[in-house]
Amino acid sequence: MGLFSFLKRDTADAAAPKKSAKSGAKASAADDVQLLRIRARRRLIGAAVLVAAGVVGFPLIFETQPRPIPVDLPIDI
Length: 77
Fold this sequence. Notes:
By secondary structure, this protein is mainly alpha-helical. It contains 2 helices and no strands. The mean pLDDT is about 80.
């Protein structure tokens, strides 16, 4: 179940014409394989996005050294 799955219309059932029992089994299996490939591709893209966010975000969050302060700051009293 995807995060934005509520935005999609369920037109696969309504748009698909009814087929005979023999060709229906083959078409159903092919549709299932295609659906599994689409889901796997989405999971792979999601995992890649999370890894990229981790590679960028973790060093920013867990930085151990403080940022250097310039020494030549003018002090006005």
